[in-house]
């Protein structure tokens, strides 16, 4: 990947200097995974930082035989950055939802890069704080109606990873179980609400292409904000 394309794809590197980006790309390792393949196992956290070049992944928390989806990440996002600073054991893994292309940078090299480039270090802290705030907002919304919570999830995914198409803002058609987990509502409520949104024409699901188009993003945003 070219330096310019890399910096444009990943907001983390928007203001990083060319020397920093060239150095990272020279040591980055490319990975390709099919859907449903484990990308990062629970015992591998802290070894590297991963950057999503294309596709979608989910971060799961493991509870013995059970697992709950904590987050959905798409193109331009990254994961593993917190674990390089925290050596405690992890009970989470990362699974490819679709075919996914990743770049990884070893923990040691990434930390060395942060020390060399204070602006990158600052930008990383900003994005970590932003994630914490988003988690805070989810917690504050825990008592809102399921439809409002689900609208918030859909709008957030569209804002972070959506692509503009003639059909509307397009994202991956997230499996209902995962969508329910990250929204913190039941699978039954998720299915019912998604059916209603589709019947209203606010969303359009293309099962063959595994896409979900937010046709009426304005209405969904209003639902997310006001209920």
TrEMBL record:
The lineage of its organism: Bacteria, Bacillati, Cyanobacteriota, Cyanophyceae, Gomontiellales. It comes from the Bacteria. SUPFAM superfamilies: cAMP-binding domain-like (SSF51206), Winged helix' DNA-binding domain (SSF46785). Transmembrane segments: none annotated. It comes from Crinalium epipsammum PCC 9333. GO terms for cellular component: cytosol. This is Putative transcriptional regulator, Crp/Fnr family. PANTHER family: CRP FAMILY TRANSCRIPTIONAL REGULATORY PROTEIN (PTHR24567), HTH-TYPE TRANSCRIPTIONAL REGULATOR ARCR (PTHR24567:SF74). The keyword Transcription applies. GO terms for molecular function: DNA binding; DNA-binding transcription factor activity. SMART domains: cNMP. Keywords: DNA-binding, Transcription, Transcription regulation. Residues 12-131 form the Cyclic nucleotide-binding domain. InterPro entries: cNMP-bd_dom, cNMP-bd_dom_sf, Env_Response_Regulators, HTH_CRP, RmlC-like_jellyroll, WH-like_DNA-bd_sf, WH_DNA-bd_sf.
């Amino acid at each position: 990947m070219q330096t310019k394309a890399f910096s444009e794809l990943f907001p983390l590197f928007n203001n990083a200097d060319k020397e920093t980006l060239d150095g990272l790309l020279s040591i980055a390792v490319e990975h390709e995974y099919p859907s449903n393949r484990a990308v990062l196992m629970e015992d591998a956290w802290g070894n590297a930082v991963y950057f999503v070049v294309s596709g979608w992944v989910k971060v799961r928390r493991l509870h013995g035989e059970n697992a709950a989806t904590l987050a959905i990440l798409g193109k331009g996002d990254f994961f593993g950055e917190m674990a390089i600073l925290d050596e405690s054991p992890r009970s989470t893994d990362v699974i490819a939802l679709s075919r996914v292309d990743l770049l990884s940078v070893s923990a040691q090299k990434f930390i060395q890069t942060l020390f060399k480039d204070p602006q990158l270090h600052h930008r990383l802290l900003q994005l970590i704080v932003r994630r914490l705030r988003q988690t805070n907002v989810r917690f504050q919304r825990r008592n809102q109606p399921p439809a409002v919570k689900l609208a918030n999830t859909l709008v957030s995914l569209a804002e972070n990873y959506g692509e503009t198409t003639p059909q509307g803002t397009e994202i991956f058609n997230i499996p209902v179980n995962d969508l329910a987990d990250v929204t913190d509502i039941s699978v039954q409520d998720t299915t019912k609400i998604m059916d209603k949104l589709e019947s209203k024409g606010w969303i359009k699901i293309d099962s063959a292409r595994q896409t979900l188009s937010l046709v009426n993003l304005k209405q969904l945003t209003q639902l997310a904000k006001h209920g």
